[in-house]
């Protein structure tokens, strides 16, 4: 490909990326957090702005934000197991009490009410 052809291709790709990015920003600006959540879940896609990194052998992997978010923004869909507080307490007491393995439990709230 000629030098001129490469420059034209690069310019075209840059315009496409800029237009796609601007379009996504416009769409997100019109969506509520709930609509945005439904969009990403329905499409089976992750939102931009996150990296998965290995932390340590004991902790495994973690998800890290690579940009700032505002309170109330949709971030990610949780796809792990959802258990009751009673089940969580039972697992902590029975399953992990005599083991070097530890678990991390997250207590979720929606509209200031616990989600079990």
Mean pLDDT figure: 75
> Considering DSSP H and I runs of 4 or more, what fraction of the residues is helical?
40-55%
* Main beta-sheet annotation: 2 strands, antiparallel
**Adjacency order of strands in the biggest sheet:** 1-2
**Count of alpha/pi helices:** 3
Number of strands: 4
Q: How does the overall form come out from the CA principal axes? A: flat
DSSP strand (E) fraction? 15-25%
Unreliable runs: none
Given helix and strand content, the structural type is alpha+beta
Helix-strand topology string = HHEEHEE
Radius of gyration: 21 Å
CA-CA gap between termini:
59 Å
Describe this structure in words.
The protein has helices at 3-30, 33-43, 85-94; strands at residues 50-56, 60-65, 108-110, 113-115. With 116 residues, the chain is an alpha+beta fold. It has a two-stranded antiparallel ribbon with strand order 1-2. A two-stranded antiparallel ribbon has the order 3-4. The model has no long low-confidence stretch (mean pLDDT 75). 0% of the residues are buried. It has 3 helices and 4 strands, in the order H-H-E-E-H-E-E.
Summarize the structure.
With 116 residues, this protein is α+β, with helices and mostly antiparallel strands. The chain contains 3 helices and 4 strands; from the N terminus they run H-H-E-E-H-E-E. Strand 3 and strand 4 (113-115) form a beta hairpin.
């Amino acid at each position: 490909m000629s030098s001129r052809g490469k420059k034209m291709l690069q310019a075209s790709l840059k315009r496409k990326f800029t237009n796609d990015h601007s379009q996504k920003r416009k769409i997100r600006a019109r969506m509520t957090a709930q609509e945005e959540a439904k969009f990403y879940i329905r499409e089976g896609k992750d939102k931009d702005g996150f990296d998965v990194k290995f932390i340590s052998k004991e902790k495994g992997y973690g998800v890290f934000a690579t940009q700032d978010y505002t309170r109330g923004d949709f971030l990610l869909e949780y796809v792990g197991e959802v258990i009751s507080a009673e089940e969580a307490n039972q697992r902590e007491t029975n399953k992990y009490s005599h083991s070097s393995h530890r678990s991390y439990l997250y207590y979720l709230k929606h509209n200031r009410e616990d989600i079990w």
